[in-house]
Design a protein that fits this description.
five-stranded antiparallel sheet, mainly beta, 34% strand, 3 helices, 226 residues, Jelly Rolls
Amino acid sequence: MDYRILLIAPIAAMVLSANANPPVLPSGWIPADLVVPAVPSPKAPVGYDIGLDTEAAGPASLTVHSILPQGQAYQSIGAAHQVVFGYAGQRVRLSGQVRAEGSPAWAGLYIGAGDVGLLADMHFGKAGVEDHLPRGAAARSGAGWQDLSVVFDVPAGASSIDLGLALVGEGQAWVRGLHFDVVGPKVSPTASTIAYDWAGARAVMEATRQSIAKFSPGSLQNPTLE
């Protein structure tokens, strides 16, 4: 667990889905809900439903579905992902069938060097994040199920990798039939990355920090632990 997430959650709200009836995630999968609200609030919003699509016909599929209307001045990221260890210095591949609907800025499979804080670093426009962006394979919205794969050279010094299905902005994405394996040098690494507005993210986060600094002093919640 990357405890930085707990510290930065009030700034732009990375939350593990807090809906009254959130979708169920299969064992081993982690939901990432990174939202910058149009109006900053001390309460972390829930921007995405993340979990198994129980209404979809056919093989089981994971879905990431935006539920919070988004404006034009910011982007949010939702993901169903895992952190995997033990592949330093190897070339790995994540593949599966992906479908996207709506108007997402980007939707697809990704792999990057890092832990559960990797997407947060992107979302907050962390300085230097452009130098180690996760590689991504994007799905075309409205084109039905598409066979996608993303191939990534894990740095020799990387202790872990973060990989899964990500959705940038509004819309919905699904994945099924996932496979993860080590590949040889004849399989070319993926050059494309998750599409994201890094400069815009930094500007929005700075404005958000300034707004949060103006909040009235808060009180301790449930001090009696009831």
